[in-house]
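Please go through the protein record below and see whether the fold suits the sequence. Record follows.
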Amino acid sequence: MSDAGLSMSSPPWPGPAPEAAQILGPAPPPITRGPGTTVHAQIEDWLAELISVGRLAPGDRMPTEQDLAAWLGVSRMTLRHALANLARRGLVTRTVGRRGGTFVAESKLEQDLTTLAGFSEQLRRHGMVAGARVLSATERPAGPVAAAALVVPEGAPLFEVRRVRLGDGRPIALEHSLFPAALFPGMLGCRLDGSLYELLEANYGQRPCRAKESLEPVSAGVREAEALEVKEGAALMLVERTAYTNEGTPVEFARDLFRGDRTRLVMWTSELPARL
């Protein structure tokens, strides 16, 4: 069984696990057995839906594996497969020990990529306290990729800022941002533990207004796992971004890594104004 989402500490929720019928209803969902689907995937989708609509709330303790498997009419191995997938998705946490069990995880932070808003602003919208732990802040020459993104010559001085972004004091993202030094003289002497976008606007009159972003699922390496307090190999989402001012000047090239168990990236789309 995968140890994704598995913790050795005792959970903060006391009391025995409830019976399946107490919290899930009098009858289990219908399960299809046949080609094109698997039983564990159906159970995973069903439990994920209950979490999504709030039938199972953050902190709720799930029934024991034995009780839930019997109620669903499946083997414990099949149920464990479904629960392990939910843990990898960050929807449940699993603990071992005398008070161990499976618990519904905290709701994920929705990061809206449709509009360009800084991380601090996004967290404030969700009622969370934003923070940052600065790992490094240095000057470095522009490599070919950053130079192309920021429209500066290769070797031009850039300010490099690496930070761990925090929500209510807990790591959510690992930021790696590059800024043209010529546009922001003295930036490294400023406080860098708050919103960098607000800093650019307040000190230099340069507010990023739009951005080109690309998304790529990746796995945490040793350094990323340590910084984000996850296991090595944990699922992360890489967001590569070039941010521009209203006049079209590129002011930031960034590669941010978001914890897959704590964030959900959201984008709104619409029909093109004219057919191609």
Summary: The two ends are 49 Å apart (CA to CA). The first strand starts at residue 6 and ends at 7.
